[in-house]
Amino acid sequence: MLTTRVAIAGLGAIGRALARRLADGVPGLELIGVAVRDRSKAEVWMRDEGIDFPILALPSLPEHVDLAVEAAPAAVLEEICRPMLLAGKKVMVLSAGALLPRPDLVDLARETGGQIIVPTGAVLGLDAVAAAGEGQIHSVHMTTRKPPRGLAGAPYLEENAISVEGLKTAKRVFSGTAREAAAGFPANVNVAAALSLAGIGPDRTTIEIWADPEVTRNCHTIEVDADSARFTLSIENVPSENPKTGRITALSALAALRKLHAPLRVGT
Predict the structure, then answer these.
(1) Which CATH number is associated with domain 126-243?
(2) Which of 94, 103, 106, 170 stands the most exposed, by the fewest C-beta atoms within 10 Å?
(3) Could you tell me if 123 and 248 are in contact, meaning their C-beta atoms sit under 8 angstroms apart?
């Protein structure tokens, strides 16, 4: 079996979960190292976990690996993707919202033979949306409900002086396009960006975001109307140690990595 050499850029909740699983061994995948901002913190964590991998600099990743998993703040997406794509290599992007204002990265991948992989992440049904997109999709609408603390600090809320503290009932804090949502909630709605990329684009995909004190999970409902099907999909994700993201996000990335060498691939 061919082996794909992998690096993880970022050791937050998602990066740590992936590092643990890859360190345990996944057929066809070899974790070569990690790239982090806080080296000493990463070293302490790896020592506590019994994991020992080199800490690599972002510009050097193409020298060491075939695929880099971006599990870092959206602000450093460019630093992770561009060197890998220039070398014609693969990047798995979890901060899908940060891709929307950077179509040049897709152009770069096309020119060099590199590839950007966006896993399903915390949403479901992207296979169905992509399949419907081979025909004609009339509309895609998504409603997201999160516990208020999972939305706290979002730039859109701060810029518009919207408070989610002390809520007793659900409050709609945003309604607009996926592109607008990705800019205003960069740590919260990568699901909307991934959905838009799978379907009719970020300017035709619409989203509502609610801060709901009655929910304990990150809830997403997707409604799609197409010439091939009409469907509604709902998911309730258990938050990870980072309330802004769900546990299933890291598992989705792991499943996508397994598919690279799987003898049986299920799904579009």
Answers:
(1) 3.30.360.10
(2) 103
(3) no
Using the CB atoms, write b or e for 107-143: b if 16+ within 10 Å: ebbeeeebbbbbbbbbbbbbebbeebbeeebeebebb
pLDDT tens, 196-244? 999 999 999 999 999 999 999 999 999 999 999 999 999 998 888 877 7
Dihedral sign, CA of 238, 164, 93, 9? negative
Q: Which helix (H) or strand (E) holds 74?
A: none
Q: Domain ranges in the chain? A: 4-121+248-259, 126-243
Element (H, E) at 219: strand 218-226
DSSP labels, 33-67: EEE-S-HHHHHHHHHHHT----B--GGGHHHH-SE
Helices (H), the chain: 13-24, 39-49, 61-64, 77-86, 103-112, 126-133, 155-159, 178-184, 190-198, 247-259
Pick from 70, 67, 71, 79: nearest CA to 115:
67
Range with the poorest average pLDDT among 62-66, 145-149, 183-187, 200-204: 183-187
Show which residues are catalytic.
Answer: 220
Place domain 4-121+248-259 in its CATH homologous superfamily.
NAD(P)-binding Rossmann-like Domain (3.40.50.720)
CB 109, CB 116: distance < 8 Å? yes
